[in-house]
Amino acid sequence: MPLVAAAAIPGPIIAAEARSTIWDELLARLEAAMPVDGLLLCLHGAMVSQDIADPESQLVVACREVIGERPLVAVLDLHANPGEGLLRGSNATIAYDTYPHVDAGERGGEGAALLLAAIAGEGPKLAWRR
Asked: Distance from first CA to last CA of the chain, Å, rounded?
């Protein structure tokens, strides 16, 4: 079930009001959809807003608070610089392989497959390092 779609032209820091408007809508719709089997987020992975240095990590943490232990998978842009909250808060995190981003659909499908596997109790174990 789709919740929210938002996009922006790459560029400057995102206004705090824009970030909070999108987040509030996403979290409200997620709350209304509960209980869900899992959550697939397609994020950029390098967002910065006026009020939060690592907003996508905090978004994953907020989503995790709503869904509890249910699986959460994040698909990121190739240029992502994911924070610890995003990585620790997800069951799997993958990124586009190509630039230009011609594989976004494929990575979305891969993320959905990982989510379904995690829902079935067969999901991956997350490991990461910088």
From this structure: 33
Q: Are the CB atoms for 73 and 114 separated by under 8 Å? A: yes
Verify cis geometry, omega within 30 degrees of 0, for the bond prior to 55.
no
Alpha helices in 1-130 (DSSP H): 16-33, 55-67, 84-89, 104-119
**Neighbour order of strands in the sheet with 72-76:** 39-42, 72-76, 92-95
Any idea which residue has 């620790």 for tokens? 88
Task: Tell me if residue 40 falls in helix, strand or coil.
Answer: strand
Question: Looking up tokens 């009001």, which residue turns up?
Answer: 17
Name the β-bridge partners of 74. Answer: 41, 93
Q: pLDDT tens across 16-72, in order?
A: 999 999 999 999 999 999 999 999 999 999 899 999 999 999 999 999 999 999 999
For the full predicted model, state whether its pTM sits above 0.70. Answer: yes
3-state percent breakdown (helix, strand, coil) of the chain, nearest 5: 40, 10, 50
For the record, the structure tokens of 99 come out as 């630039």
